[in-house]
């Protein structure tokens, strides 16, 4: 399992089969406040890294959700769609957004590891 | 904390906007709204003078009765909305008109009022703070400190003293607010404001509420936010605020007209067919929040109007919005399509408020 982060405050966790799970970080959910709506990508659709694939909206604001990597979306979190507050209560586990099959695993190398993300938050 | 009209204001406290919103609907919330402008007009001619700036019956307003008013401009638009109440002066030297105006407009409002300086004294009160205590338990909880507060009915106010272990705190309380709930707005000397706020927060029913929930509460209550739902380009009639214009100031009334923009505003009242657009309420038919600025289309793809306030509404349980739409699309039940990120989000026109008002009228 590899866990990486993006400067856009998303996390991506890659399993042994090359499928990655993506969500927003605890910092992101804290900055947004109460999440009341998510728009999730289309299953089966292929996206490039940095593409806007969805939206997360709190009472006060809307933010784009990006794909950290290129690949085909294999699954979206229907439980999150039904209960968007999972993004607040459990952002790095049951509040995940979508799963994507990496087309270029080397893209992970350009993402932040846990220490680098922590450093980024410290300087934010 | 965020900058708002030149003040550092809390958007939310640690529990967040949703919890604060529901706290206010279910119990009581305390808002620091000291950024708002407080102004007194003094002199026998003050009410008649103020009537030259607002399309409202001020002269007929009895002592202790509060009224919603609007400063209008020559083209019939709205310069600001405000509250006005005749009250005894703090020093006992007769009556004054006490005005509460919006923070972002207060400099302009005071300049506008200064045009009345030959008819009355204009007294800005920057040394006064303003607290709002809102919610179904607001008055009963505060009444444990000041029993006579329970004698006020909606849109009335009076001076009171809040007993404390040291010196009592003098306040001017009105039973009114900006949430659709029962509650109070409390003018207090800035030097006493923190002491009073701590007394109120010590009541078990009361929690502090930030600007974020103030916005969702007033939106659900169908109340306009100046600079968004009303501004210099919207007339009171378009804005659905005709109720604020009493008969005496309308065509045929004893003091008809004689306020800025009277020709245009009275002709809209007299001939509704010429009103090209109106402010309406919309509820989302799916879960997508629809924000300010979003364009609305009709079923056949024509531009119908634009959203001026929109959010997820915690008590209504879904997205709601206010918008200006062309008159032909204002029938209740009409479905319009909000253009959100290239998608047409269906919304249905619904009479406001979205959540019933719970004012105490006695």
Largest interface summary: A-B, 11 and 18 residues
The chain-level structural class of chain B is alpha+beta
Strand-residue fraction of chain A? 35-45%
- Give the number of helices of chain A: 4
Number of helices of chain B: 7
Global Rg of chain A: 13 Å
Global structural class of chain A:
alpha+beta
Morphology of chain A: globular
Percentage of residues in strands of chain B: 25-35%
Oligomer: heterodimer
Q: How many strand elements of chain B?
A: 19
CATH domain class name of chain A: Mainly Beta
CATH topology of the largest domain in chain B: Gyrase A, domain 2
Radius of gyration of chain B, taken over Cα atoms and rounded to an integer in Å? 21 Å
Succession of helices and strands of chain A: EEEHEEEEEHHEH
- Counted up, domains of chain A total 1
Gap between N and C termini of chain B, in Å? 38 Å
List keywords for this structure.
heterodimer, A: 124 residues, alpha+beta, OB fold (Dihydrolipoamide Acetyltransferase, E2P), six-stranded antiparallel sheet, three-stranded antiparallel sheet, 4 helices, 9 strands, globular, B: 362 residues, Gyrase A, domain 2, Elongation Factor Tu (Ef-tu), domain 3, 2 domains, six-stranded mixed sheet, six-stranded antiparallel β-barrel
What does this structure look like?
- The complex is a heterodimer of chains A (124) and B (362).
- Helix content of chain A is 20%, strand content 36%.
- Chain A has 124 residues and is α+β, with helices and mostly antiparallel strands.
- Chain A has a single domain, classed as RNA polymerase II/Efflux pump adaptor protein, barrel-sandwich hybrid domain (OB fold (Dihydrolipoamide Acetyltransferase, E2P), Beta Barrel), CATH 2.40.50.100.
- In chain A, strands 1-2-3-9-8-5 form a six-stranded antiparallel beta sheet. A three-stranded antiparallel beta sheet of chain A has the order 4-6-7.
- In chain A, strand 6 and strand 7 form a beta hairpin.
- The N and C termini of chain A lie far apart (27 Å).
- In chain B, 17% of the residues lie in helices and 33% in strands.
- Chain B has two domains: 216 residues, Gyrase A, domain 2 (2-Layer Sandwich); 108 residues, Aminomethyltransferase beta-barrel domains (Elongation Factor Tu (Ef-tu), domain 3).
- Chain B starts with a strand and ends in a 13-residue tail after the last strand.
- Chain B is globular, with a radius of gyration of 21 Å.
- Chain B is an alpha+beta fold and 362 residues long.
- Chain B has seven helices and 19 strands.
- In chain B, the strands form four sheets. A six-stranded mixed beta sheet of chain B has the order 10-11-12-9-3-13, with helices on both faces. A six-stranded antiparallel barrel of chain B has the order 14-17-16-15-18-19. Chain B has a five-stranded antiparallel beta sheet with strand order 5-6-7-4-8.
- In chain B, helix 1 crosses helix 6.
């Amino acid at each position: 399992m590899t866990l990486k982060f993006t400067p856009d405050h998303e996390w991506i966790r890659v399993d042994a089969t090359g499928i990655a799970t993506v969500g927003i970080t605890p910092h992101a959910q804290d900055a947004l406040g109460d999440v009341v709506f998510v728009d999730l990508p289309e299953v089966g659709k292929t996206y490039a890294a940095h593409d806007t694939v969805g939206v997360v909206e709190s009472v006060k604001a809307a933010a784009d959700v990006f794909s950290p990597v290129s690949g085909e979306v294999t699954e979206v979190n229907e439980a999150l769609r039904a209960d968007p507050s999972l993004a607040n209560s459990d952002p790095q586990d049951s509040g995940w957004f979508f799963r994507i099959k990496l087309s270029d695993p080397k893209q992970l190398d350009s993402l932040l590891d846990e220490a680098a993300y922590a450093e980024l938050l410290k300087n934010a | 904390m965020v900058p708002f009209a030149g003040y550092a204001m809390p958007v939310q406290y640690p529990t967040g906007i949703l919890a604060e919103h529901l706290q206010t609907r279910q119990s009581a919330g305390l808002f620091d709204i000291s950024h708002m402008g407080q102004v007194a007009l003094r002199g026998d001619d003050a009410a008649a003078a103020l009537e030259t700036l607002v399309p409202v019956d001020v002269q007929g307003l009895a002592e202790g009765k509060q009224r919603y008013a609007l400063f209008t401009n020559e083209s019939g638009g709205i310069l600001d909305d405000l509250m006005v109440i005749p009250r005894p002066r703090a020093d006992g030297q007769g009556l004054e008109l006490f005005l509460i105006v919006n923070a972002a407009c207060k400099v302009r409002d005071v300049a506008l009022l200064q045009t009345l300086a030959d008819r009355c004294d204009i007294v800005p009160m920057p040394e006064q703070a303003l607290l709002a205590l809102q919610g179904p338990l607001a008055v009963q909880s505060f009444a444990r400190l000041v029993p006579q507060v329970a004698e006020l009915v909606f849109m009335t106010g009076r001076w009171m003293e809040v007993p404390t272990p040291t010196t009592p705190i003098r306040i001017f309380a009105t039973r009114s607010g900006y949430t659709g709930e029962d509650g109070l707005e409390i003018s207090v000397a800035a030097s006493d404001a923190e002491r009073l706020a701590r007394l109120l927060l010590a009541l078990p029913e009361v929690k502090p509420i930030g600007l974020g929930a103030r916005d969702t509460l007033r939106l659900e209550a169908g109340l306009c936010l100046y600079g968004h739902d009303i501004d210099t380009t919207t007339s009171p009639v378009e804005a659905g605020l005709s109720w604020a214009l009493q008969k005496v100031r309308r065509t045929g009334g004893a003091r008809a007209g004689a306020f800025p923009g009277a020709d245009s505003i009275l002709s809209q009242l007299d001939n509704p067919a010429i009103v090209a657009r109106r402010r309406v309420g919309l509820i989302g038919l799916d879960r997508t929040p629809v924000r300010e600025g979003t364009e609305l289309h009709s079923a056949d793809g024509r531009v119908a109007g634009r959203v001026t306030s929109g959010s997820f509404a915690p008590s209504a349980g879904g997205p709601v919005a206010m918008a200006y739409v062309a008159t032909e699309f204002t029938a209740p039940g009409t479905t319009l399509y909000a253009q959100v990120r290239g998608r047409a989000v269906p919304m249905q026109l619904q009479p406001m408020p979205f959540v019933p008002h719970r004012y105490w009228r006695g």
